[in-house]
């Protein structure tokens, strides 16, 4: 069994209305990372990534840039033990 980890991420900046969630989903699929992503009412994007440690760290790094149209100002991340996410979805 590989070492799995969980990252709970909050991304701020111009990250809504710029395909950030869809791009996050695509990037997660490419890295075989499970979890979800959603917009928050305060303008941030929240995401959870679960998977192999290197893949999750790569997703957190990806969040600093995001989609081509995004302008990321800050990325907050907390690591924890995985909760058993399966697949990756965009939540509303």
pLDDT < 50 runs, ≥5 residues: none
Structural class of the secondary structure composition? alpha+beta
- Can you count the beta strands? 5
Radius of gyration (Å): 12 Å
Helix content: 10-25%
- Lateral strand order in the biggest sheet: 4-1-3-2-5
SSE ordering: EHEEHEE
Task: Indicate the proportion of strand residues.
Answer: 35-45%
Overall mean pLDDT: 96
Q: What's the overall geometry?
A: globular
- Biggest beta-sheet profile: 5 strands, mixed
**End-to-end gap:** 33 Å
Contiguous helical run count: 2
Present the secondary structure layout.
Blueprint: E1 4-14, H1 20-30, E2 34-39, E3 45-52, H2 53-63, E4 71-80, E5 88-90
Parallel strand pairs: 2-5
Antiparallel strand pairs: 1-3, 1-4, 2-3
Comma- or semicolon-separated keywords:
41% strand, 92 residues, alpha+beta, 24% helix
What does this structure look like?
By secondary structure, the chain is of the alpha+beta class. It is built from 2 helices and 5 strands. It has helices at 20-30, 53-63; strands spanning 4-14, 34-39, 45-52, 71-80, 88-90. The protein is globular and about 35 Å long. The termini are far apart. The mean pLDDT is 96.
